[in-house]
Design brief:
This protein has 394 residues and is α/β, with parallel strands linked by helices. The chain is built from 17 helices and 12 strands. An 8-stranded mixed β-sheet has the order 1-11-12-10-2-7-3-4, with helices on both faces. The longest helix is centred in the middle third of the chain and has 24 residues. The protein is globular and about 70 Å long.
Amino acid sequence: MTALIRDAARPYTGEALTALLSPATRLLGLGEPTHGVEAFPELRNELFRHLVEHEGYRSITLESDCLSALIADAYVNDGIGTLDDATSRGFSHGFSAMPANRELLRWMRAYNEQRPPHERLRFYGFDGPLETAGAASPRPALTALHDHLAAHLDLAWSRETLDELVGPDERWTNPAAMMDPARSVGRTPEAKKLRLIADDLRTLLAAHAPHLTAATSPDDWWHADLHARTAAGLLRYHAGMADTTPTRFGTLVCLRDAMMADNLDAIVRREARRGPTLAFAHNAHLQRHRSQMQFADQPLQWWSAGAIIATRLGDQYAFAATTFGSRGSDVPRPDTLEGLLSTLPHARSVVDPGRLAAGIDRKLTPRVPADHTYFALDPATTDQIDAIVFVKDI
């Protein structure tokens, strides 16, 4: 290891990480290389506490269902419900099973308990109501949006009309539709009508924003807009599930991250006067360069939510990628980035990518991990990362 490489790394602390970021940062994306490894959400919790206590952050958002997250936020903000209920119902993708997520909600609630509303921490999800096996019914999002508008405006559609068009929720959530477009209802005549209605309802929400905000509150309007984005995004995603062309899966991953980016954009705008936001998700959803993966024997490429939001925020967006060295018998080769970082003396390191690149005197090869769920960092893309967090062993 050269002195330049040693000098590029510091023991992991929140202060060491934020020292590498632009002071203009409004959204910090902290990526993890795989899901289900407790070391990364624990590291996230440690960073978030530092950001709250020393950097003025007042919100965090996770790669989790944006509507389910409202349950978790109600608990951490106002003490509504219990920690058990907020944990079990406030996360999607099986993330409720991770102790670090329960601990995050517990700490946020304790922090908020003695503080006025404007100083309290907020919890968000920025993913859609999507799971690996499919997508949710649009009914909850559509009806919540409809009810908000109907309380103040004369609408051309009744709740009964929406219910008839949606039909049984099981039609929308059928897991067989993920692999078989013929099983999807996303392009039926009813679904097409619902997409037009969702678009019209969202336009009404925007057009009457001054009146609706005055009649309710900015928070109520923001939540209505969240349901409007979600309804439109779900209907768009279901239409993608009904696509019969070879590019179907590529379309779905693009639609998902576009929905994520819109949610991140809305969160940053809502939090603008309160402070920056920490976003936590897989590296592939937050990185600036093009993401890629194999799914159903197809190579997929798409622009991540981080790449999309970076085009809107510029230097107000920062990305810190995490990766690791050894995982049991899976030890990185010396000619990989992870192999090189494994020679660092620290159990957890914060690495300056620019200084690291200056100290590398040979071409590194991308790591091929034993676990297909782990995405290694591409050495050729480190110039698009603001900070690397390296965990030597997990």
